[in-house]
């Protein structure tokens, strides 16, 4: 599987997922449709699929245009998320084939929106025990999981975000690559240090992320393993973190950290 970043708008990422065997491709959240189609053409791939994480305009706003530019392309989205120009409404746990070698699993990850979907992509040869090989799985998390952060609870609750991050996504194999919807990493890591100032892995990743951005390079992908080490929203099960923020449960803690992040000005 080949994954291509397509920077869009001010700080969004669309992605192309390419099955290198069949040259079939899917676009994730192609908000700038012309740009995404041009990249697909440059790679010589057949764009058959659009995977929409959620209905917000900066993720679904290119769907109608891409259907005009690529006749026959099929748009997928969450069954309860009211995604623009959606052809196939996905339930949690549904699978899609991409090309001859890739499988896309739909994971319902609500809170940012009520029907938000993350897309977990594996190759035919990947297994749970062989994910550290050359082609580890990938998950496209939209605005639920960011590198070192999470989305605002616009349509859901702290309980839902806890389930989405710390149950659904945290249960994926640790080498799984995480591709999120926005380039927020530096700010997220700076905030994470206010929660865990002694966490050296956060400090190290912040230094790396700052270098990446100075070079105009993306900070995705992360991995599930790295997020469990550096993302405060995925570490809320730790008693020492709960104690730091004056909470007694993971759900209470994720709500408190989100409130602090919402009010943080960096």
From TrEMBL:
Concerning Pfam families, the annotation shows: HAGH_C, Lactamase_B
Catalytic activity, per the record? an S-(2-hydroxyacyl)glutathione + H2O = a 2-hydroxy carboxylate + glutathione + H(+)
Q: Which InterPro entries match?
A: Clx_II_MBL (IPR035680), HAGH_C (IPR032282), Hydroxyacylglutathione_Hdrlase (IPR017782), Metallo-B-lactamas (IPR001279), RibonucZ/Hydroxyglut_hydro (IPR036866)
Pathway field = Secondary metabolite metabolism; methylglyoxal degradation; (R)-lactate from methylglyoxal: step 2/2
Family matches, as Gene3D superfamilies: Ribonuclease Z/Hydroxyacylglutathione hydrolase-like
Kindly give the CDD domains that the UniProt entry links to this protein: hydroxyacylglutathione_hydrolase_MBL-fold
Entry keywords, A to Z: Hydrolase, Metal-binding, Zinc
Q: Which SUPFAM superfamilies match?
A: Metallo-hydrolase/oxidoreductase
Cofactor requirements of the protein: Fe(2+); Fe(3+); Zn(2+)
**Entry's EC annotation:** 3.1.2.6
The protein's superkingdom reads Eukaryota
Gene Ontology biological-process entries? methylglyoxal catabolic process to D-lactate via S-lactoyl-glutathione
- Write the protein's name: hydroxyacylglutathione hydrolase
Organism for this UniProt entry? Stephania japonica
């Amino acid at each position: 599987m080949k994954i291509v970043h397509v920077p869009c708008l001010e700080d969004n990422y669309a992605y192309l997922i390419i099955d290198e065997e069949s040259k079939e491709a899917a676009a994730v959240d192609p908000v700038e449709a012309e740009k995404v189609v041009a990249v697909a053409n440059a790679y010589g791939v057949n764009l058959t699929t659009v995977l929409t994480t959620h209905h917000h305009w900066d993720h679904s706003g290119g769907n109608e245009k891409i259907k005009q530019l690529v006749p026959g392309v099929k748009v997928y989205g969450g069954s309860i998320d009211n995604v623009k120009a959606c052809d196939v409404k996905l339930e949690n746990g549904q699978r899609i084939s991409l090309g001859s070698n890739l499988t896309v699993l739909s994971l319902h990850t609500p809170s940012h929106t009520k029907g938000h979907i993350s897309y977990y992509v594996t190759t035919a040869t990947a297994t749970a025990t062989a994910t550290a090989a050359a082609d580890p799985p990938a998950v496209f998390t939209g605005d639920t999981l960011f590198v070192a952060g999470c989305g605002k609870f616009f349509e859901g609750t702290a309980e839902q975000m806890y389930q989405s991050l710390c149950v659904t996504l945290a249960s994926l194999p640790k080498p799984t690559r995480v591709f999120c919807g926005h380039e927020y990493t530096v700010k997220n890591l700076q905030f994470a240090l206010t929660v865990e100032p002694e966490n050296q892995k956060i400090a190290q990743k912040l230094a790396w992320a700052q270098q990446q951005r100075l070079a105009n390079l993306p900070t995705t992908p992360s991995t599930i393993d790295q997020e469990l080490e550096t993302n405060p929203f995925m570490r809320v099960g730790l008693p020492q973190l709960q104690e730091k923020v004056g909470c007694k449960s993971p759900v209470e803690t994720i709500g408190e950290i989100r409130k602090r992040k919402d009010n943080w000005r960096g």
